Amino acid sequence: MATPRVTELRPNPDGYSYDEVKPLARLALQAGLSVLLRGHPGVGKSTLARELADELNLPLHDIRLAQREPAELCGVHFPDRERQTLQLLPPDWVRAVCDAPGFVFLDEINAAVTRLHQAAAYQIVLERRVGPFRFHPQTVVLAAGNLDDDNAIVSPLSSALNNRFVHLRLRVDAAAWVRWAESAGLHASVVGYIGGRGKFGAETLYEPNGDDAFPTPRSWEMASRLLSHAGDADVRRVVAACVGIPAAEKFQTWHKMQTRVDPRLIVEKGKVIDFKRMEPSAAYAHVWVVSDYVLQRESLAEAFLPNIARFLASEGLDPELRFIFLRRLDAVPDLLTRLKRQPDFQTVAAELVDLHMEALA
């Protein structure tokens, strides 16, 4: 297996972003160490486990401790009358990771589990076995749990068990979630709303407020799935059912704003947009909707390229929004190459390069 490249990072008490923690976790697993990943509910711990299992080409065995009886972890003993002993009958997942390499994911490891659960986890993590059944040498173990301040029922792990883990904390990462949401085909309005919140993206994505429904990466994904089946009249209600009323009210404002943007007039008719007096959220709505319109076209006529370049060069458009627009258009094969022939594009591209060089200086 290739060793993952890990960018130099300073230890951060608030944790690492999704993109930062993933190579760290993979490095530890490939070194034969067990990893304990902590983070808020719905922040992406299970998704990270699935992606790591795929990258390591290992079958995933997802074991949620809070939902398992101890016997489902340790197996059950049955009498062997001929030998007059008790024999251990292991669960299917144990046999699987003994016979061949596997990815053991101990989810909810600190979710009010009993001492029996922790004893089983200790044996799995420390000794890589269940009873006499030893895991394949290439089987890896990743555990995950919520944070103590998550208003979730959390049981402290023993110091002996804690000391057997490489500890990583996954913080809320709006930028990584937006990239994942785009690739997963989530509803464009939800992706655009989270992506357009800028420095407020993390607290928009995760905001516990004591209500039954509140924003988390998981609940925003549920809202996206409901929106794909809901009419415009139901937007506020279906979103509120997933992320709560306060977040739904803010989302509704964004949703109305972005539905007022007509990308056809900009891309096909060359409508000029003045961003100088426009609110940042409205400016982002224009960038998101226009880029989404371009991304959905199977082919883009040459006659539309000057209009796209002109939009990118619009007065008052923030350089960061221009970078976002270009990053999204980069997904269209050869589009940026075709745009480079447009004078407006050449001017803006030179300005952005200068800004990038200044930031690196």
Describe the structure.
The protein is an alpha/beta fold and 361 residues long. It folds into 2 domains: 18-170, P-loop containing nucleotide triphosphate hydrolases (Rossmann fold), CATH 3.40.50; 174-208 and 252-360, no CATH class. The protein contains 18 helices and 9 strands. A 5-stranded parallel β-sheet has the order 2-5-8-1-9, sandwiched between helices. A hairpin with a 4-residue loop joins β3 and β4 (85-89). The longest helix is centred in the C-terminal third of the chain and has 18 residues, at 343-360. The mean pLDDT is 83.
The tally of structural domains comes to 2
The largest sheet is:
5 strands, parallel
Second-tier CATH architecture of the largest domain: 3-Layer(aba) Sandwich
Strand content: 5-15%
- DSSP, total strands: 9
Strand order of the largest sheet: 2-5-8-1-9
Q: Which ranges are low-confidence, i.e. pLDDT below 50, for 5 or more consecutive residues?
A: none
Compute the separation of the termini in Å: 37 Å
- H-E string: HEHEHEEHEHEEEHEHHHHHHHHHHHH
CATH level 4 superfamily of the largest domain: P-loop containing nucleotide triphosphate hydrolases
What shape does the CA trace take? elongated
Total DSSP helices:
18
**How much is the radius of gyration in Å?**
25 Å
The CATH class assignment of the largest domain is Alpha Beta
